[in-house]
Structures are given as C-alpha cells and as structure tokens.
Amino acid sequence: MCGIVGYKGKSDACGILIDALKRLEYRGYDSAGIAVWNKGKIEVARQKGKVDELRKIVADSSFAGKTGIAHTRWATHGTPSERNAHPHKAGDVVVVHNGIIENYIELKDRLRKEGHKFLSDTDTEVIPHLIMSYIKKGRDFVEAVRLSLKELRGSYALGIIREADKMLIAARKESPLIVGVGNGEYYIASDAPAIINRTKRFIFLEDDDIAVFAEGTVKLIDLEGKAVKREIRQVQWSDAMAEKGGFKHFMLKEIFEQPRAISETLIGRVKEEKGQVDFEELKLPDLAKIKKIWMVACGTSYHACMIGKHLFESMLRIPVETDIASEFRYREPILKEDDMLVLVSQSGETADTIAAMKEGKKRGVYTLSVCNVLGSTLARDADGVIFTHAGPEIGVASTKAFTTQISVLFLFALHMGKTLGRISASDVSGYINEIKQVPHKIQSILDASGLIEEVARKYMAYRNFLYLGRGVNYPSVLEGALKLKEISYIHAEAYAAGEMKHGPIALIDENMPVVVVSPHDHTYKKTCGNVEEVISRRGRVLMLTDDPSHEMADRVETFFVLPRTIYALQPILSVVPLQLLAYHIANFLGTDVDQPRNLAKSVTVE
Ligand code: AGP
Predict the structure, then answer these.
(1) Tens-place pLDDT, residues 132-153
(2) What pTM, to 2 d.p., does this model score?
(3) Which DSSP symbol is given to 357?
(4) How far is the CA of 309 from the centre of ligand 1 (A)?
(5) Is 252-441 the same fold as 3-243?
(6) Domain locations along the chain
(7) Among 251, 300, 484, 593, residue to substitute to test ligand 1 (most atoms within 8 Å of Cβ)
(8) Could you tell me which residues come within 8 angstroms of residue 43 by beta carbon, excluding any fewer than 6 positions away?
C-alpha cells in the first residue's frame, strides 16, 4: 500500500519527510521519492528501493526548503522502477498519490491530444498533467487542482506542490489522509504513525476534502470550492498504538480495514459500464484450452480456494480440484498440460505452496498465483500473478487477506467467464454491481461489533466449539473455527452441516456452543433440521443468517442477521462476524492476539 507524507512549516522539510517515510515502512513498498520546494524551485529525487537509499541521495544542500512531499510506492500500475516511482511532475506541478485512478486511460488519451507527454506507466501521472492543463487555461493553482479532482474517478490521497506557488495542497477520496497540526507548521500523512512523533493534533480529512496550506495557515474546501469545517482532534496514541490506528491489535485494525481493502482490490479492475473485468498485470494462456483448474494453498488461503471452487464450478462449469499444498506436493497429482494451477498465498512465501507451484511448473502446467506481497517468491516465479491490494497484513491471523482473496477469485471467474463467453456482459455487470456493494455491507457488520463483543463475553469460558455450514459457507465456518483456534487456543472444529449425523452429533450437550451459518438459500431447510437436532440435545446455538424471519430465530441462543448478497459472495460477509467473535474471545482471554503462541505469519519452512 503506498504511503504519502507532506510538510509545510519553519523547519527543514527534507529531514522531516524522510523520517516520516521511515515510519511508514511497515506498510510495505518497492520504491520511494521526495520533492522539496525552495525559492521557486522544486528538487525531486526518486528511486526503486528503500528509504535509506533515498536519504543518501538527498543528503546534499539542493534539498533545502521548508515545504515538501514524499512517497513510498506499492506498485499497482506499472512495475517498480525509477520512472514509475513518485513524485510525478508536469510543468512545475509535482504530485504524490496513494490510491487508484480508474479513468486514467481516457484522461491520458485526452491530455496526449492536447500535447502532453507521459514518461511513466502509472495512473498517477495524469494528475499533474491535468492540473497543468487547467493552469494553462488561466486557472490559479487551487482552482486547477479542484477542477482536476472533479474529473478523477477512483481513489486518491494526494500531496501537491508547484514551483510558482509556495502552497502545499492535499486532497482525499477513499484513500485515508490526515493533517497534522503543529505550532505554525502542518503535516499530511496516509497514516498517523508517520507524524505522531511531531504532533498529536490531527484533522481527519473526509472524502472530497481539499486542504490548502499557506504560511502558517490551513484552509479546507470541498470540490465545489465551499469552505469545509473539520475539528482538530487531540489523540493520546503512543507510537505503537499509532501503527494500529488507535485499535488495540493489528488484527482488529485489519478486520476493520476490509471494506477499504476490498474496494482497493476492485478499483482499476472492474468496468461495470462495459461489463468487463481487466487484470492488467496478468499474462494468461489461451483460456479456451483450460479443461481443469487446480487451486492449492495452506490454512486460510486454502479456505479461499474452497470458495474459489464453488465460484468457478457454478459460474463457469469448469471442474476445479482443491488441495492443501502439503498434501498436493507429495501425492503425484494427475496434472495435464491444459490444466491451470492456481496458488493462493497472502505472504507468497509459504514453503509448501511454493513447492506445489514448482510441481506444476515441472509438468508444464500454467501457474497463477494470488498474492498480497509484491516481489514475493510466488508473485515473482508463477507464470502469472494477481495481487490482492489488502495492504500489509501484520496480524498473524489472516483476515483482510482472506476476503480480498475471495474477491480476486470472484473477479477472475468473471474475467474468465466473459472471455469464454460463458457469462454475458450484462451478467458480469450484475455481478460487479453485487461485489461493489460488499464493502458497505461489511461496514454494516463492523458497526455491530459491539453486539458480537457481548456474545464473545458470554461464550469465552467454553473450551470446545463446533461450527456448521453448507456449500460456500462450509469454508467460511472452517475459517471461523481456525480463527478461534489460532488466537484463543480454544478447540474449535468445523463440519459440513450435513455431516453432523455422521459423528459430531455425539459431541453435542449443554457445554458445546455450536456456531451455525444458515442463510436463506437452497440449503436452508436442511440446516434448520441440523439446528433442531442440536437444540434437542441441549446444544447452545449461535446462528448467523441473512433472514431476519428465520424459522429458528426464537429457538437459538444467539441470532445475528447478516446483510443479504448473492450466494457466491455470502462467505465474504459470513466470515466477518466469525473473525470478530474469535478476536473478542481471545482479547477477553488476554492471549497474544497479533502473535499467537507457536505461530508465524509466514510458514517458510516445511
Ligand atoms: C491464517 O490465519 C494462518 N495465519 C495460516 O493458516 C495462513 O493462512 C497459512 O499459513 C497460509 O499463509 P499464506 O497465505 O501466506 O500462504
């Protein structure tokens, strides 16, 4: 995830900005850059590589100045390189950007026709050119920025400076950006940790806000140029808490980041109006030749593969075989040349999943990785890669990576289905419309986190849990059970609800909380039967459903209503309360939620 910082004040901007970038390194990046304004001239330095290398480049005096912007880049459009690194410049306007501009191609085409020359492959570079095009038409700096922002579609957090003006301008839409208020000096940053050491007084910008910093003053306006009022908030965060954005644990922060993580994973890929999905970074074989897809991973990522199987088989009627990587690599899988092997991995460094990829490559099979970490082994060595844009996942228990993996697999199924003519453009548009509503639906679940915290308090003392689900929600309950196990150390196992009578029912008594995911879908009646069997054996049922009038509503101990969505996307919603339940129980028990005992974030050994 990119990070941006800016400064306007009375001190040396360069040192402040480099230090602020260092404090954003935890977000992950592949290149860094800085621009400093000094007496009407802007010096720019940028490079692929680490902030410490940038520090060496700017050590000389030409980077003196009291106004500047800086950036760490996590590549989404255009490979990591100097020419794709930020800041980007056009005329005397210099910009750093976090987010994705969806309509950059049409803007670039129009600006090229006006004579603008582009040097990079990035979406960001259209922004300084667009601002310059307005300045050339006689608009002043602030107006040129405001009118440019009105044309952008997608997400942005921006820092903008110009040689002919002493001002620093910042703006945000869907990508977070905060203003730090010092004593006659101002900061901007993607995240609090960058500047928490300089000030604890923040203005949290909201979508469509524009902040204009002059000498010792800041003015906030909206996209229409009207003044906007935002309060200055004093935060009591330590450095450590700042990295967690005020949340007690990274895991909770990452659960709450899921709406934005999914939005960022969608942006730049979905073209609803055209009914298509684009994966720019993807080199694909002739999809018409693919007769079978394998989906292989470990842990949470394997659960995502199980959901992927449902998506591809139900939407494309292509056979999908899933397997745990540590099994796949030793069982002589019957791979054929026209198979596709999909490897899902948050870290991109899981030893068994890498070994599975090698197994596939050895047999001449096309390998596609779904990864969250740029430059990781699976991202680099697979024949093709699709990145989840979840941003760094610090908590060992995977949360936002899981929901963005499902999102990516859903989008890839749409892309493949449209390419093979198995899904019409209008159906693709319909599916895109559904997944674009998912972030808001997740947010409505997160808003009820307090309810789930109360449920957690009630069940935290139990030592065994059973989770039941059917169809696409079976992987979801597997994931819910894994979350509880790995962070609270409580024994939890998940079963396909139809399997209950084949053994697990012997476990049911009043000491057994049973979590049941029971949406009103084609398996509803069957699952009602399972719930009846549990209740009649005094089991304690916690039910998640999308049906407020579920016939078992007043028979179960806990009843939580989920927003409705299409069957294929139910797991993205049903897993969120399960993540929160596991988190709150573990938090009450006082375990090390972010670094649970015996676990590593990435299992790079076998
Ligand atoms: C999930 O919460 C665990 N941390 C673990 O199961 C993890 O999903 C598994 O180790 C796979 O990791 P990967 O996605 O980085 O390959």
Answers:
(1) 999 999 999 999 999 999 999 9
(2) 0.77
(3) H
(4) 19
(5) no
(6) 3-243, 252-441, 448-589
(7) 300
(8) 35, 36, 58, 62, 63, 65
